Amino acid sequence: MAPPGPAGAHPTPAEPLSRSIFRKFLLMLCSLLTSLYVFYCLAERCQTLAGPVVRPSGGGEEAGAPGRGALAAGPRELAVWPAAAQRKRLLQRQQRRRRRPPAPRDDGEEAAWEEEPPGLAGGPGGSGAGSSAAEAPPGTLALLLDEGSKQLPQAIIIGVKKGGTRALLEFLRVHPDVRAVGAEPHFFDRSYDKGLAWYRDLMPRTLDGQITMEKTPSYFVTREAPARISAMSKDTKLIVVVRDPVTRAISDYTQTLSKRPDIPTFESLTFKNRTTGLIDTSWSAIQIGIYAKHLEHWLRHFPIGQMLFVSGERLISDPAGELGRVQDFLGLKRIITDKHFYFNKTKGFPCLKKAEGSSKPHCLGKTKGRTHPEIDREVVRLLRDFYRPFNLKFYQMTGQDFGWDG
Question: Which of 96, 142, 263, 369 is surrounded by the fewest CB atoms within 10 Å?
Fold first, then answer.
């Protein structure tokens, strides 16, 4: 009797044909899975290798240029990390920066945005959960790799404090063609002596077709700012977010009160003489709201058509509508629409379903939307009487009725 062949080579009477085929298929499947696993491990190893890849230097690149992950490899060679590994590390670094709490500021500007659990996001379109890396704006990886260039801003949000400037900036940063500085530069009011080169270096890198922006709401009330911005560029587009000046003044006072609980009452600061009802216009909380007076300084350097006035009230009640106007003004495609917002009833503000570079809903932070102190109704009435003529003049100058006197 002949000895049996190798296992699985030939079916025997005791081994049905179907079982032999199944065993062959199982062996092939195991081999395939093993090969895929080995390939996967090798691919991961290649992405994380620390060894440099050497290529000729060219295109004006300098060996060892900061921010590019480059190593000096000789007078005519540039050693750069593998692109895939560099992108991966930069994305991880960006995500860590976003999770890091913001540094405290000394100019009254506070962290305005906070992430919420996806379950809090209401309204159509879902919570916005998903992969932030997969849905990052076009050009994000290129910008992380320091491609593009730093430009002076083509548009600036110049005011006003406690009007809604932070909300507008964060809404605009959702747009893939908008690149903006997160912190307020305060160049044209506090740091002008540092020069335009210093100012430009604060700006993010942009690609062709993208707009560079910044926002510093104190510019609107700074006498020197209009001339200084005009000297930088007469074509700069200016955005002013305005709000009922009485409500704005109370909000301004509320922010100061949260930091200095020992300050006098709102009523005592409002008047030079409470008996005569003379308003103290030297108090900044009151002075900022005289919009017509400040606008006159800007119109000496910029035409009214180069300025856009955004309603702080409509930015809350209809954020997509106001953002539509802003996108048109900046010459951008209307990408930011209703689908990007939901209204948070607890905060009383609209929130982003997904902010730039994040997969989580973002809302105005805890420092925004503070409960205002109870103000004497007679004081509020006197303030409305005081602001009324200035408001009417502001309506005429801008061609917009903001409805603060209705």
Answer: 96
